[in-house]
Write a structure and sequence with these properties.
The protein is α+β, with helices and mostly antiparallel strands. It folds into two domains: about 5-85 and about 120-305, BirA Bifunctional Protein, domain 2 (2-Layer Sandwich); about 85-120, no CATH class. The chain is about 40% helix and about 25% strand. The strands form three sheets. A seven-stranded mixed beta sheet has the order 3-7-8-12-11-10-9. A three-stranded antiparallel beta sheet has the order 4-6-5. The chain is globular and about 60 Å long.
Length: about 300
């Protein structure tokens, strides 16, 4: 059987050779070509077309959130190994001399950096909850948000589908438990139909998040038992495990409690999100249909407007 690591490397090298990805010298960090971006834009338009009939509120955020937001969300407790923060130089002349000396000797200059209070966004939906909470009680129809942003997770890899910086297109639902259940069922069908229209093989399975440590294993087991997370999986590298390209998450009242979001009935609001990994779907299309979009099946090109 082919070594998965060798298969990841070969696919990455093929993408670089065809100029679709651009090496930046760090595993999991890439530039994108115009061709790659046109596929991403086509996917975004197709995802938007699937969700626009619901008339969601549109929110777009930068790839950073406040460090306090990251703490309040619980992300640092559950995923400290994936989190990233922004540091910057804030010293005086003496500190600058230390920095210059370290640089001239090829040493570690990071000690001259200090936290800025900004964290890198780990998931697109994290910017939504404090905004909705600040508006007061959620109306009877709940809240529905279309959000898109760059995200960061520190998991360097030679697998091109496991990027450290990537984009997520999400729809976020906030309201009652019944509204959440209906939302997730609707989007599981929509996502299946969309990915099938792209000519990609798929499966939808119960999944869990990569919680950290011993306590995290208990959380992951509970998440699976309660079917709180499903993933739409596509085989991107044939010799490797299938890759999660869309996730469907029922948070119960986790973020409702964290941000004191009050549902219309006066209880704590429940939340859910569906997240599309647009880079992963783009890589799946390139893997299954070839590196030249002009040669793809006409039906796939029509869906993406290519």
């Amino acid at each position: 059987m082919t070594d998965p690591a060798a298969a990841y490397k070969q696919f990455r090298d093929d993408l670089l050779q065809h100029g679709l990805l651009i090496s930046m010298g760090v595993d999991g960090l890439f530039g994108r070509s115009g061709t790659f971006e046109r596929i991403v834009e086509g996917l975004n338009a197709a995802i938007g077309a699937a969700g626009d009939p619901d008339r969601p509120e549109v929110m777009r955020f930068p790839p950073g959130i406040g460090s306090l937001q990251l703490e309040k969300s619980g992300y640092l407790r559950n995923f400290p190994h994936l989190a990233g923060t922004v540091a910057s130089f804030s010293g005086g002349d003496d500190d600058h001399r230390v920095l210059l000396d370290s640089l001239s000797k090829g040493g570690d200059w990071s000690g001259t950096q200090r936290p800025t209070g900004v964290a890198l966004t780990p998931a697109a939906c994290y910017g939504v909850y404090p905004v909705v909470a600040s508006r007061g009680r959620v109306p009877a129809q709940g809240a529905l948000v279309d959000v898109y942003t760059w995200c960061f997770r520190h998991e360097p890899s030679i697998d091109p589908a496991r990027m450290q910086m990537f984009r997520q297109r999400e729809h976020v639902r906030i309201g009652s438990a019944e509204q959440i259940e209906s939302f997730r069922e609707t989007w599981m069908e929509r996502a299946r139909s969309l990915v099938e229209s792209l000519g990609l093989p798929l499966a939808i399975e119960v999944a869990s998040d990569p919680f950290f440590g011993r306590a995290g294993r208990i959380l992951a087991s509970s998440q699976r038992e309660k079917s709180l997370k499903f993933e739409l999986l596509v085989p991107i590298v044939a010799a490797a495990p299938r890759t999660a390209c869309v996730s469907f998450n029922d948070h119960r009242d986790l973020f409702g409690r964290a941000w004191a979001i009050e549902a219309f009935a006066g209880d704590t609001a429940h939340t859910a999100c569906v997240g599309f990994g647009v880079e992963r779907l783009t890589l799946a299309l390139l893997r299954h249909h070839g590196f030249v979009p002009g040669d793809w099946p006409a039906g796939v090109r029509n869906v993406l407007g290519l």
